[in-house]
Write a structure and sequence with these properties.
This protein is an alpha/beta fold and 506 residues long. It folds into two domains: 348 residues, Rossmann fold (3-Layer(aba) Sandwich); 86 residues, Tetratricopeptide repeat domain (Serine Threonine Protein Phosphatase 5, Tetratricopeptide repeat), CATH 1.25.40.10. The chain has 19 helices and ten strands.
């Protein structure tokens, strides 16, 4: 009864808060990032005053590809900005075969009387906090649509999350209250301008200052060693990712610019974990037991591709164990260490080979999620894209589902992806096609005529004819280099040690 009384007393305030949020008033300025300091970041596009065009400067070509557009959008133009990381850019090839290119051709085929611009803003190794900065920039360039494909790069740069750990529950509560629209309205009536609570008032001053460009751990010699099992990264990074997505949705809504989020896809079937380690909390006795089971598994699979992928050493036991014994030993090992990514991957492969496809999918998902070096968006990050899209009623293209439905037994592998996350040419074409269909469903453009399919196929064929053999050869070379990078084989030397993301010690 007391709870009902409290709720009744609060109901007028809740109603007012709901109406103010619906009206998006008072309007906030862009919120400062509460997790990292981004003041070093620079605008992506530069204005050429002679021709009135915005362009990515040559000094950014190490992470971006050339792109340009007129500052003042033509009256008949439909302008789209595609944001994200290397998948958006089209790695290991380039923007000419990336999904934004195919989207542009598909849309142009549907509205031949209009000028369709799809500007590719994909940056290599760009995580969501850097993507958000680009989104805020392109909102000034009169977009008709923004597309964000993000989630794979959240663990690439070392950040210190000491402020996250040191923030008290009281400060967080005060921050939440200060962000309520009804509180901001009261401040307005009192003669104070609407403003967000400053994160620096909530968190400590020990915040990571990001460099102007990406400073990925794997860009340096020994970078793979910086990824350790049990490092307290997970919760702060997921929360940071959520915050960035929420800002993207809120700021697009505030200026009435349509936004599409893409749930990222990754290779489950044909990509072993990039790094696996034993649980550091295991006792020496349990560690020895796990090692015995693991050695037996390695002996059983030494001649198979599975052991080669995981870098197992060659052995020649006189009577090698059977695969059935390997399966049993894996179950014993995982009973001791259920989050060992290497053991999970091998178990998933054996389940796949035996025809137990539902179990294989579940196990290989866990192998990805417990990868000590998470270069593929984990389930938690991918789910966050879906959750934020639902929270803000933003259209979602589920690339994970899109590729799963077209893969044997719904397990995505090398049929669609050239490596751990990057789609092949057909995969990019599929993404572009589905995004075009979504544009029609959202009525951003009129529905295409009956000859749309023949028009788009003609434009696709014409575009492909402009790509020579050297283009695809360079892509294969980049793919080889990318694989070495994921293995931690970069040769760059860091002048200063990277900052730890461990919580402050009490």
């Amino acid at each position: 009864m007391r709870l009902v009384t409290v709720l009744l007393a609060l109901s007028p305030f809740l109603a007012i808060e709901g109406v103010l949020r619906l009206l998006q008033w008072p309007r906030f300025p862009p919120a400062a990032d509460p997790f990292v300091d981004l003041h070093n970041l620079r605008p992506l596009f530069q204005l050429d005053t002679e021709n009135g065009r915005m362009a990515i400067g040559p000094e950014r070509y190490n992470l971006f590809r050339p792109a340009e557009f007129t500052l003042h959008k033509p009256a008949d133009a439909f302008r789209v900005f595609a944001l994200g990381g290397s998948t958006t850019q089209g790695e290991p090839y380039s923007t000419k075969t990336a999904f934004p290119q195919w989207l542009q051709l598909d849309l142009q085929a549907a509205v031949p009387d209009r000028q369709v611009e799809v500007i590719n803003c994909g940056g290599l190794s760009y995580a969501s906090y850097r993507v958000l900065a680009i989104l805020r920039e392109v909102l000034h360039y009169d977009p008709d649509l923004i597309i964000v494909y993000s989630g794979h790069n959240e663990y690439l740069e070392r950040r210190t999350y000491a402020p996250y750990y040191s923030s008290s529950p009281l400060n967080r509560s005060l921050s939440w209250l200060a962000g309520l629209r009804i509180v901001q309205l009261a401040r307005n009536l009192a003669g104070q301008s609407a403003q967000r609570p400053e994160p620096r008032e909530i968190f400590s001053s020990d915040t990571t200052i990001l460099q102007a460009e990406v400073d990925a751990l794997l860009d340096y010699e020994g970078g793979l060693a910086e990824y350790e099992r049990g490092a307290p990264w997970t919760k702060p990074i997921v929360e940071h990712f959520r915050w960035n997505l929420q800002q993207m949705c809120a700021e697009c809504r505030q200026v009435d610019v349509p936004l599409i989020l893409v749930r990222p896809v990754s290779n489950l079937l044909d990509c072993p974990p990039f790094k696996f380690e034993n649980d550091p909390r295991l006792s020496p006795d349990l560690q020895n037991q796990f090692d015995q089971h693991w050695q037996t598994v390695r002996a059983a699979l030494e001649a198979s591709e599975l052991s080669d992928e995981l870098g197992t050493e060659s052995r020649e036991p006189p009577q090698p164990p059977s695969r059935e014994q390997a399966l049993e030993e894996l179950h014993h090992a995982l009973a001791i260490d259920p989050e060992h990514a290497g053991a999970l991957y091998l178990l998933g492969q054996l389940q796949w080979a035996s025809g137990d496809y539902p179990s294989a999918r579940e196990t290989l998902l866990r192998a990805r999620d417990f990868d000590v070096c998470p270069l593929r968006a984990t389930s938690e990050l991918a789910d966050m894209v879906t959750q934020v899209a639902q929270q803000y009623h933003v259209p979602l293209l589920d690339a994970e589902q899109l590729f799963s439905q077209r893969s044997p037994h719904e397990l995505v592998g090398s049929q669609w992806l050239v490596d751990h996350v990057h789609p092949n040419l057909e995969g990019h074409q599929l993404l572009g096609y589905e995004l075009a269909r979504l544009c029609f469903e959202l009525e951003l453009l009129p529905p295409p005529a009956d000859d749309w399919e023949s028009r788009r196929q003609a434009l696709i064929a014409e575009h492909l004819s402009t790509l020579n053999e050297a283009y695809f050869h360079r892509g294969q070379q980049r793919l080889a280099g990318l694989r070495l990078w994921t293995q931690g084989r970069a040769k760059k030397i860091r002048s200063q040690p990277s900052r730890s993301s461990d919580p402050p010690q009490s």
